[in-house]
Amino acid sequence: MASIILDNLGKIYAGGTRAVGDVNIDIADGEFIVLVGPSGCGKSTLLRMVAGLESISEGQVRIGGRVVNDIEPADRDIAMVFQNYALYPHMSVRQNLAYGLKNRGTPKAEIERRVGIASDILQIGPFLDRKPRALSGGQRQRVAMGRAIVREPAAFLFDEPLSNLDAKLRVAMRLEIKELQKRLRTTSLYVTHDQLEAMTLADRLVVLNGGRVEQIGTPLEVYRRPASAFVAGFIGSPAMNLIDTRAVPHLPGTAHAGQIGIRPEDLTVTPDGPIEMQVSAVEELGAQRLVHGQTGAERITITLPSDAPLSDSLRLSYRPGALHLFERETGRRMD
Amino acid sequence: MIENRPYLNALAHLVLILGVCVVALPVWVAFVASTHTATAFMSGTIPMWPGPNLVENYSRMLGAGVSTSGTPPVGVMMFNSLIMALSIAIGKIVISVLSAFAVVYFRFPFRGLAFWCIFVTLMLPVEVRIVPTFQVVADLGMLNSYAGLSIPLIASATATFLFRQVFLTIPDELTEAARIDGAGPMKFFRDILLPLSRTNIAALFVILFIYGWNQYLWPLLITTSSDYYTIVAGIKRMADAVDGLPQWHLVMATAMLAMIPPVVVVIGMQRLFVKGLVETEK
After folding, report:
1. Which chain B residue has the Cα nearest residue A76?
2. Taking a C-beta distance cutoff of 8 angstroms, is the pair A306, A289 a contact?
3. What is the pLDDT of residues A204-219, one digit of tens each?
4. I need a surface site. Which of A62, A250, B183, B231 has the fewest CB within 10 A?
5. Contact A90/B at CB under 8 A
């Protein structure tokens, strides 16, 4: 158990390309932090710098108060779960779990005990003596997590661990990871590009874009008060409508902003609403329907109950306070 | 083939059977010859069925050898060949697996140069460099020794490339997982890389053993003492009868015996060999 502090962390590759810059994150002991962002935003690089698989060009990583910049991954007291599981194919599940402990010179009885505990927690007892290729994707995922658990590390690092699973299993494993983390209270750093996964798992979210931190906050904070137009568009599904103010000049209080943001679920259909929308497509989701359309040249989406009446042209209004205002040049939030 | 056409199947089998006959006939003739007396093959008609002298011919070759041609008993030559083939096969595998490990997993100065130096040796097989190599081996006093027979043939760019390709297919995550699990480079090599390339090592061993066993020119050149004759070179010496006719029945018996070890290796390693081709998941 330990805190992790990323202090002004930066990564510049040999060719001079900057992958990550000015990252400052304080992760409290036992906290579950999710790094989220589109592909190429540097989130995996950041995680690998914490793991020690990628060298650190600027700043410091401190795990439990100790600067680990020049410490080998094995000695950083971390465990990592990889996207493709990275199980040793020629070893049985038991050997896979025990390998790291054996290398550290852990006594046999202690290895037995920890493997036993981990296999109980993850319910992988029945296939301890099988080879990884005889397991299904979900089982392999559990073994990969087991390999992290047996080490009893200061921190878990997850690198998109669920992206190789099918959608249904992904939802189930997501919940399991959450429960497991709550139970073990191990500091965790989790990388994903899936904003839904990020929202559901995180104690706090770190939204990254182009190697920089856009916003750090609890899922609800980030959802309710996105710090920039990028975060606003990235977090939440369906994505927030971002409309150039010039397309809707008649909305009160928006004249000084560059963009307004409004979530599809905050829009309602009213006969005298200030926004006019030309409907172009409807997606049925069962309980709700997504209605896509245009207001002027801007695309706009609203969520409506599935029994709401539809027509080619709708007038929309919104609750006061549901409007987010962003600067035109920087995209930063204005209030 | 997905198609199922009876005529095509029959034709394919016919071609295969013909192929087997073409390969097997000389072997059969050699076997038949090894079971007759010396005169049977000189009479003008070649017998196609085994004769009565099988036990006599083979026991003579295994026991005494042919004294007139100056070759030792077959047992000694087989042993020499075995030592040579094993040294070459094992030596090549050890050196190439280590050099491939270095080239793939380590960033050292002149890594590219080292890689190209290995590559260049591909263009220099023994036959091309035989005179300078002979000079070097002679100067080092390795004529008529097992070291002289095997060491000049051990360096192998082909095997190094093979292992390089194998190592490149092993996912980076596995290397990283091993690093996090606290396995140092040599431990990673022993615990992860070697077991994962086990089937490739077996396949390569089969090929290299046969390569070593079949060496002809090099042993012929550097062995002058009959104690170090290898079987393949020995057969040639036996067939070179100075006065009189070659004793074909004995030469063929030796050839049959010389065939046994490579066949045993192929059959023994077959299971691993095929597994190496079928098993794709790394």
Report:
1. B180
2. yes
3. 999 999 889 999 999 9
4. A250
5. yes
